[in-house]
Amino acid sequence: MKRDYLKWGALAAALVATASAEYELARAVGFNQFVAAAVPAALDLYTVRALRSGREVLAAVAAMIGVNAASHLVTAGLVAVSVPLVVAVAAIAPLVLWRVHSLGDDRPEVTSPVTGDRPGGDERPAPAATPKPVIPAVPPLTATPFQWAALPASKVTTAVPAAQPRQVVTAPVALTPADLRREARKLNREAVRSTRRPVTIKTLQDELGLSRREATELRREVVGTVGP
Q1: Is there a smaller number of Cβ atoms within 10 Å at the N or the C end of the chain?
Q2: DSSP code for 158
Q3: Cβ distance 39 to 89 under 8 Å?
Protein backbone atom coordinates (compact mmCIF):
# COMPACT_ATOMS: atom_id res chain seq x y z
CA MET A 1 0.00 0.00 0.00
CA LYS A 2 1.40 3.41 -0.98
CA ARG A 3 2.00 5.72 1.96
CA ASP A 4 0.79 9.31 1.86
CA TYR A 5 3.87 11.06 3.23
CA LEU A 6 2.39 14.53 2.70
CA LYS A 7 -0.63 13.72 4.84
CA TRP A 8 1.38 12.33 7.75
CA GLY A 9 3.99 15.07 7.38
CA ALA A 10 1.29 17.71 7.76
CA LEU A 11 -0.04 15.86 10.81
CA ALA A 12 3.39 15.81 12.45
CA ALA A 13 3.94 19.52 11.78
CA ALA A 14 0.52 20.42 13.21
CA LEU A 15 1.11 18.35 16.36
CA VAL A 16 4.46 20.00 16.96
CA ALA A 17 3.02 23.49 16.37
CA THR A 18 0.16 22.99 18.84
CA ALA A 19 2.17 21.16 21.51
CA SER A 20 3.88 24.35 22.74
CA ALA A 21 0.63 26.19 23.44
CA GLU A 22 -0.89 23.14 25.15
CA TYR A 23 2.20 22.83 27.35
CA GLU A 24 2.12 26.51 28.34
CA LEU A 25 -1.57 26.29 29.28
CA ALA A 26 -0.87 23.30 31.53
CA ARG A 27 1.95 25.24 33.20
CA ALA A 28 -0.30 28.28 33.64
CA VAL A 29 -2.92 26.33 35.59
CA GLY A 30 -0.36 24.85 38.00
CA PHE A 31 1.09 21.67 36.39
CA ASN A 32 4.82 21.10 36.93
CA GLN A 33 7.16 20.92 33.94
CA PHE A 34 7.08 17.12 33.69
CA VAL A 35 3.33 16.59 34.11
CA ALA A 36 2.55 19.51 31.81
CA ALA A 37 4.28 17.71 28.93
CA ALA A 38 1.71 14.91 29.21
CA VAL A 39 -1.14 17.24 28.19
CA PRO A 40 0.01 17.83 24.57
CA ALA A 41 1.11 14.18 24.36
CA ALA A 42 -2.38 12.98 25.36
CA LEU A 43 -4.12 15.28 22.87
CA ASP A 44 -1.74 14.27 20.08
CA LEU A 45 -2.30 10.55 20.72
CA TYR A 46 -6.05 11.05 20.76
CA THR A 47 -5.90 12.90 17.43
CA VAL A 48 -3.76 10.21 15.80
CA ARG A 49 -6.10 7.45 17.06
CA ALA A 50 -9.12 9.31 15.71
CA LEU A 51 -7.49 9.83 12.30
CA ARG A 52 -6.46 6.17 12.04
CA SER A 53 -9.91 4.90 13.01
CA GLY A 54 -11.76 7.50 10.88
CA ARG A 55 -14.06 8.44 13.77
CA GLU A 56 -14.25 11.34 16.24
CA VAL A 57 -11.87 13.34 14.05
CA LEU A 58 -13.95 16.49 14.48
CA ALA A 59 -14.00 16.10 18.28
CA ALA A 60 -10.22 15.63 18.44
CA VAL A 61 -9.54 18.65 16.23
CA ALA A 62 -12.03 20.78 18.19
CA ALA A 63 -10.30 19.82 21.45
CA MET A 64 -6.93 20.89 20.07
CA ILE A 65 -8.39 24.19 18.80
CA GLY A 66 -10.02 24.94 22.16
CA VAL A 67 -6.89 24.18 24.19
CA ASN A 68 -4.67 26.25 21.88
CA ALA A 69 -7.09 29.17 21.88
CA ALA A 70 -7.32 29.14 25.69
CA SER A 71 -3.54 29.03 25.97
CA HIS A 72 -3.02 32.06 23.75
CA LEU A 73 -5.79 33.99 25.51
CA VAL A 74 -4.16 33.35 28.89
CA THR A 75 -0.71 34.25 27.55
CA ALA A 76 -2.04 37.51 26.06
CA GLY A 77 -3.75 38.42 29.35
CA LEU A 78 -7.22 38.43 27.81
CA VAL A 79 -8.45 35.54 29.98
CA ALA A 80 -7.56 35.06 33.64
CA VAL A 81 -6.81 31.68 35.14
CA SER A 82 -10.03 30.67 36.88
CA VAL A 83 -11.53 27.61 38.52
CA PRO A 84 -13.43 26.47 35.38
CA LEU A 85 -10.27 26.76 33.30
CA VAL A 86 -8.23 24.71 35.80
CA VAL A 87 -10.94 22.03 35.94
CA ALA A 88 -11.15 21.89 32.13
CA VAL A 89 -7.38 21.42 31.73
CA ALA A 90 -7.28 18.81 34.51
CA ALA A 91 -10.06 16.85 32.76
CA ILE A 92 -8.12 16.52 29.48
CA ALA A 93 -6.12 13.43 30.49
CA PRO A 94 -9.09 11.37 31.84
CA LEU A 95 -11.26 12.26 28.83
CA VAL A 96 -8.48 11.33 26.38
CA LEU A 97 -7.95 8.02 28.21
CA TRP A 98 -11.65 7.18 27.91
CA ARG A 99 -11.95 8.10 24.22
CA VAL A 100 -8.70 6.43 23.09
CA HIS A 101 -9.69 3.14 24.71
CA SER A 102 -13.19 3.40 23.25
CA LEU A 103 -11.77 3.82 19.77
CA GLY A 104 -9.33 0.95 20.28
CA ASP A 105 -12.01 -1.54 21.39
CA ASP A 106 -13.87 -1.43 18.08
CA ARG A 107 -13.09 -4.66 16.24
CA PRO A 108 -14.59 -5.88 12.96
CA GLU A 109 -17.15 -8.62 13.23
CA VAL A 110 -15.97 -12.05 12.09
CA THR A 111 -18.54 -14.00 10.12
CA SER A 112 -18.29 -17.75 9.67
CA PRO A 113 -18.38 -19.02 6.09
CA VAL A 114 -21.65 -20.52 4.90
CA THR A 115 -21.14 -23.92 3.34
CA GLY A 116 -24.72 -25.03 2.94
CA ASP A 117 -28.16 -25.05 4.51
CA ARG A 118 -29.12 -27.75 6.98
CA PRO A 119 -32.66 -28.59 8.13
CA GLY A 120 -33.85 -26.25 10.90
CA GLY A 121 -31.66 -23.34 9.80
CA ASP A 122 -28.50 -24.86 11.34
CA GLU A 123 -25.65 -23.94 9.00
CA ARG A 124 -22.46 -25.84 9.77
CA PRO A 125 -19.51 -26.63 7.53
CA ALA A 126 -19.54 -30.18 6.28
CA PRO A 127 -16.67 -32.30 7.59
CA ALA A 128 -13.90 -32.89 5.08
CA ALA A 129 -13.73 -36.38 3.67
CA THR A 130 -10.73 -38.34 4.90
CA PRO A 131 -9.02 -40.25 2.09
CA LYS A 132 -8.59 -43.95 2.72
CA PRO A 133 -5.02 -45.21 2.80
CA VAL A 134 -3.94 -47.31 -0.16
CA ILE A 135 -2.41 -50.61 0.97
CA PRO A 136 -0.31 -52.36 -1.70
CA ALA A 137 -1.14 -55.96 -2.39
CA VAL A 138 1.44 -58.38 -0.98
CA PRO A 139 1.51 -61.98 -2.20
CA PRO A 140 0.93 -64.72 0.39
CA LEU A 141 3.79 -66.64 1.94
CA THR A 142 3.19 -69.47 -0.50
CA ALA A 143 3.74 -67.25 -3.55
CA THR A 144 5.94 -68.60 -6.27
CA PRO A 145 9.31 -67.01 -7.11
CA PHE A 146 7.74 -65.56 -10.26
CA GLN A 147 5.15 -63.73 -8.14
CA TRP A 148 7.88 -62.26 -5.94
CA ALA A 149 9.84 -61.16 -8.98
CA ALA A 150 6.78 -59.31 -10.28
CA LEU A 151 6.70 -57.00 -7.26
CA PRO A 152 8.20 -53.48 -7.63
CA ALA A 153 11.71 -53.14 -6.39
CA SER A 154 10.64 -50.57 -3.74
CA LYS A 155 8.29 -53.12 -2.11
CA VAL A 156 10.86 -55.87 -1.53
CA THR A 157 13.62 -55.17 0.92
CA THR A 158 16.53 -57.36 1.96
CA ALA A 159 17.87 -57.19 5.47
CA VAL A 160 21.50 -56.12 5.41
CA PRO A 161 23.55 -56.24 8.61
CA ALA A 162 24.77 -52.86 9.72
CA ALA A 163 28.37 -52.21 8.87
CA GLN A 164 30.59 -52.24 11.91
CA PRO A 165 32.65 -49.07 12.34
CA ARG A 166 36.32 -49.57 11.75
CA GLN A 167 38.50 -49.09 14.75
CA VAL A 168 41.85 -47.46 14.18
CA VAL A 169 44.42 -48.32 16.84
CA THR A 170 47.50 -46.17 16.98
CA ALA A 171 50.50 -47.23 19.00
CA PRO A 172 53.08 -44.75 20.19
CA VAL A 173 56.38 -44.96 18.32
CA ALA A 174 59.37 -45.03 20.66
CA LEU A 175 62.50 -43.28 19.34
CA THR A 176 65.88 -44.79 19.93
CA PRO A 177 68.70 -42.65 21.39
CA ALA A 178 70.21 -42.42 17.90
CA ASP A 179 66.87 -41.21 16.49
CA LEU A 180 66.58 -38.64 19.27
CA ARG A 181 70.06 -37.27 18.57
CA ARG A 182 69.33 -37.12 14.83
CA GLU A 183 66.08 -35.24 15.37
CA ALA A 184 67.75 -32.95 17.91
CA ARG A 185 70.52 -32.07 15.42
CA LYS A 186 67.89 -31.32 12.80
CA LEU A 187 66.03 -29.02 15.17
CA ASN A 188 69.27 -27.35 16.16
CA ARG A 189 70.19 -26.66 12.52
CA GLU A 190 66.77 -25.14 11.90
CA ALA A 191 67.06 -22.96 15.01
CA VAL A 192 70.53 -21.71 14.05
CA ARG A 193 69.40 -21.02 10.48
CA SER A 194 66.27 -19.06 11.55
CA THR A 195 67.32 -17.41 14.84
CA ARG A 196 71.14 -17.75 14.79
CA ARG A 197 70.87 -19.38 18.19
CA PRO A 198 71.06 -23.02 19.30
CA VAL A 199 67.91 -24.94 19.88
CA THR A 200 66.24 -24.39 23.24
CA ILE A 201 65.38 -26.99 25.88
CA LYS A 202 61.71 -26.06 25.56
CA THR A 203 61.73 -26.79 21.82
CA LEU A 204 63.26 -30.22 22.42
CA GLN A 205 60.64 -30.95 25.07
CA ASP A 206 57.74 -29.93 22.84
CA GLU A 207 58.95 -31.54 19.60
CA LEU A 208 60.35 -34.83 21.00
CA GLY A 209 58.11 -35.31 24.04
CA LEU A 210 61.01 -35.34 26.54
CA SER A 211 61.24 -34.34 30.16
CA ARG A 212 63.25 -31.29 31.03
CA ARG A 213 66.13 -33.40 32.33
CA GLU A 214 66.22 -35.53 29.17
CA ALA A 215 65.95 -32.46 26.94
CA THR A 216 68.81 -30.78 28.85
CA GLU A 217 71.15 -33.76 28.44
CA LEU A 218 70.26 -34.15 24.76
CA ARG A 219 70.88 -30.47 24.09
CA ARG A 220 74.27 -30.73 25.77
CA GLU A 221 75.18 -33.52 23.32
CA VAL A 222 74.03 -31.88 20.08
CA VAL A 223 74.23 -28.14 20.59
CA GLY A 224 77.79 -28.00 19.48
CA THR A 225 77.14 -30.09 16.39
CA VAL A 226 75.56 -27.92 13.71
CA GLY A 227 76.62 -29.93 10.67
CA PRO A 228 74.95 -33.18 9.57
Answers
A1: N
A2: -
A3: yes
Helices (H), 33-143: 33-36, 38-53, 57-75, 83-90, 92-104
- pTM comes to 0.42
Q: What are phi and psi of 157, to 5 degrees?
A: -120, 150
173-217 pLDDT, tens digit per residue, is 577 888 888 888 888 889 888 888 898 998 888 888 888 888 898
Distance separating alpha carbons of residues 74 and 88, to the nearest angstrom: 14
- What's the one-letter identity of residue 165? P
Q: Name the nearest CA neighbour of 42 among 90, 105, 81.
A: 90
Separation between Cα atoms, residue 163 and residue 22, nearest integer Å: 82
Angstrom CA distances, 107 to 31, 90, 102, 117, stand at: 36, 30, 11, 28
103 contact partners, CB below 8 Å, separation of at least 6:
49, 50, 53, 55, 56
Amino acid at position 24, single letter: E
Q: Give dist(CA 51, CA 114) in Å, integer.
A: 34
Q: How far apart, in whole angstroms, are the C-alpha atoms of residue 96 and residue 47?
A: 9
Q: Are 50 and 59 in contact (CB under 8 A)?
A: yes
